[in-house]
Amino acid sequence: MILHTHRQGNGEPVVFLHTGLETGATDFEEQQSYFAAKYDVIAPDLRGHGRSSHNDFGNYFHKSADDLKETLDSLNVTRAHIVGCSLGALVALFFARKHEKYVNSLTISGLMPGKPDNWKEMHKQDSTMQAMLLENEEAVSFLDQQHDSDWRAFIHMAKDENWYPFEETEDLSDIKSPVLFMVGEGNQHEVQGATFYPNQSERVQVAVLPFASHLVHVQQPDIYSRILSQFLVKSAPKMQRGDVDG
Question: Which residues contact 210 (CB under 8 A, 6 or more apart)?
């Protein structure tokens, strides 16, 4: 499906993929404003979010990756820098593997590089929090207004203990583009990737941000944007040389 997309600026395309239950308009807001001065900023509503109405959550990440390809095709974008956090980072990983020719660089945050030993307990706690969300009338009303689709179906999908694609996050050595993994020092399960991701591939760079946890781009927006900016500049010449050589 072609995703409802927010777009601003001119230059090299940069795609921002939002976190779960957010939209292209409500997430990465500071980064979109920052990069629109020099880049073509593209922020789609992922499948089932915002105005990208769809209630098929089966095989979600593969379908979302294909949605992004179809969307970029509709915008005549053949290559882009892909940036995602949490749900958006997982979609970005699937996209980078399924449609690698579209990817100039990949920036990911808010994901777990391996299955924690206490995953069952963590998942149980998440499910409890999600159940509480469904009982919060104010939050439910807000999300009903924000999303055309039945966003509750997304929460139900996450009730499956096996919903998280750890097989996709544990090894980045097959990603062909330059990769930047940004992580908040406060998340013990995510920060482990800063240790072994660089050992898997020389294409992977890591930035550990202080005073931040899962949502590093929200908790440290200025530092996040400056690091991402340097990474995009550093990645671009390599891509251009690769395009000429290829």
Answer: 185, 220
Closest C-alpha to 24, from 42, 1, 48: 42
CB burial class (10 A; 0-12, 13-18, 19+) of residue 219? middle
pTM recorded for the entire structure? 0.94
List the one residue out of 5, 16, 9 whose CA is nearest residue 39.
Answer: 9
User: How many other C-beta atoms can be found within 10 angstroms of the C-beta atom of residue 56?
Assistant: 12
- Output DSSP code: residue 240: H
The pLDDT tens digits of the residues spanning 167-223 come to 999 999 999 999 999 999 999 999 999 999 999 999 999 999 999 999 999 999 999
Can you tell me whether residue 62 is helix, strand or coil? helix
Cα separation, 105 vs 205, in Å, equals 11
